[in-house]
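note to self: dont lose this again. the chain is below, predicted strucutre after it. 144 aa total, dont forget to put it in the shared folder this time
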Amino acid sequence: MKIREQIKLVNTALSGTLDLYRIWAKKHQLSYNALVILYTLDDYKTCTQKQICDWWALPKQTVHGILLDFEKKGYITIAANTRNKREKFIKFTKTGEAFASSVLGELYKMEESAMEKLGDEQRSQLLASNTKYYELLKEEMQNG
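---
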């Protein structure tokens, strides 16, 4: 198989995986972007808007709008950093934790089940290959 065909298959698998998360979000009356923000807050417990933007390559305005909606619904609190007033810390309220759990709990189980079905060896290969491809592509883009 030629390298362009392999790249196409990798990109198709990545795009398809992201589409599964979009479908899951829609099933829960969320946008894909709102889902990844929930996912991030659940993973990190406390983070900043800038961190969310950087991790997911999302526009600041998009993240800000979703965070304001979450705050209005009582899912999150946004508090100023005492050391840097421009930076705000975001974390779940109890209501937000319950909401995130209702959206993410089953998703996590399915992710974990899929990874377990790969087995240790394929899981290690997947992680190593994806990480290496990312690092090499990043290097190429920085140099090219």
